[in-house]
Design a protein that fits this description.
It contains four helices and 16 strands. It is mainly beta. The protein has a single domain, classed as Ribonuclease Z/Hydroxyacylglutathione hydrolase-like (Metallo-beta-lactamase, Chain A, 4-Layer Sandwich), CATH 3.60.15.10. The protein has a seven-stranded mixed beta sheet, with no helix packed on it. Bound molecules: zinc ion (ZN) (2 copies).
């Protein structure tokens, strides 16, 4: 698989060179995982797979923005803005690709899921935003060639809030927590969706991320447009 990270900026005001665009990953020049910028449609994807419908992952959820063309899409729920969306919460195939949605905890208002994408023997995980992934789902991940996840917060524990009435958590966990979870399943973790901590001093931030690597796992920060070949 050829995996191109189109955008690495989280839902923040701040940006930095090489980190200006919101979430989107182009696989094999064929389909997109998330659609955080309208311009990603210029790649003419055959379909789009959404982790969740926050505007930095689905640009048309922003005020005064709309999706002009009807595009085939898959996601954890069906927003009114998308005519051609198939809600998929169980595994599905599309051409040579096999998608396994994995439920994630992130927001009280929108549903969210990560995806294992398989093509032949190759397997990658794209998480989208993550407050937590339940242990029973972590166990289902198996061995992955690459994990693409988020870097909203560097500090351990990230920024998790708890809804008083329901006790449900939401927000973003920290990079060290994500590395701990996913190191058990892969030897390559790629971070995107960076928060303010990253934009303040990119070189230092990249270094901090790289330092989380060890003999068994390489952890790295992606740049807008960076390509990985599996
Ligand atoms: Zn989100
Ligand atoms: Zn986001």
């Amino acid at each position: 698989m050829k995996v191109k990270i189109l955008g690495t900026r989280g839902e923040i005001e701040r940006s930095a060179p090489w980190h200006t665009k919101h979430s989107g990953v182009l696989v094999d020049d064929t389909f997109l995982l998330d659609l955080g910028e309208k311009e990603y449609l210029d790649h003419d994807p055959e379909f789009v797979v959404f982790t969740h419908f926050h505007p930095d992952h689905a640009f048309f959820m922003r005020k005064h923005q709309q999706l002009d063309k009807s595009i085939e899409a898959y996601g954890p729920e069906k927003p009114d803005e998308l005519n051609n969306l198939y809600k998929r919460t169980t595994a599905f195939d599309r051409g040579p690709y096999h998608f396994t949605p994995i439920p994630t905890i992130h927001s009280l208002k929108v549903k969210s899921q990560a995806y294992i994408v398989e093509k032949g023997e190759q397997r990658i995980l794209y998480t989208g935003d993550l407050a937590w992934m339940e242990k029973k789902y972590q166990k289902e991940l198996g061995k992955l060639d690459m994990v693409i996840t988020e870097g909203s917060f560097f500090k351990k524990g990230g920024m998790i809030r708890r809804h008083k009435a329901s006790g449900k958590i939401f927000g973003h966990t920290g990079v060290p927590d994500l590395v701990r979870i996913f190191s058990k399943h892969t030897n390559h973790i790629v971070l995107m969706h960076f928060g303010n901590w990253f934009m303040k001093d990119i070189e230092k931030a990249r270094e901090k991320i790289a330092k989380l690597s060890n003999d068994d796992v390489k952890v790295e920060a992606a740049r807008d447009g960076q390509e990985f070949s599996l």
